[in-house]
Amino acid sequence: MSKGRQLYELQEADLEIEAKREALAHIESRLGESQVVDEARARLASEKKRLDELSASQHEGEWIVDDLRTKVATLEDRLYGGSVNNPKELASIQEQVEHLKKRGREEEDKVLDIMTEVEASKETVAVTGREVDTLEKEWQQEQADLSRERDEVTAALATLEQRRQDLVSRVDAASLKLYEELRRKRQGRAVAKVEQGMCQGCRIVLPTRELQRARGGQELVQCGSCERILYVS
Asked: Are 89 and 11 in contact (CB under 8 A)?
């Protein structure tokens, strides 16, 4: 096997390793809590809190209405029970009864308004709860898929890294040093294939002598333009 081919295969392994590492980083960035799910849970918690507050207000309003009715009943017992005969006192009691009944009607209206809000809030809680359930199931499935994908990519990466070690062991130190230097300078592509007499790294037509040396495969030949190592398949 020519040195150029050895380094080309090493480059292919390095590019695959780089792609797998990027894929693994992307997968790991998506593992963990979901902002969408967290926001939906927060909305649900907020609406449940509002529902609790509305229900508490409804119960308080209902207690006030019941209390006012009790007071009205007590006063009406005095008003019509015959225990009070003084006209002024009767007028005063009648006035209190009317006042309490008016307050009662106002409180009943408030309770009815709150009950309407409670029903709307219950519906919102139900809808949001279903949304959270759906999002959580989708998120759990996605997490399971990502975990499985991470395991597959990790295994593939381990295989590629072992292959790289095998390839490196076959390359002489000087060639490997040149390859690594060019790889840093040329964005990971130190080796360029030659097709139709052209360097595929910089798309320059190679001089005949340079092309013949590259075809020989006995030495490393660099492109006179981009300096990449030339490989003729």
From this structure: no
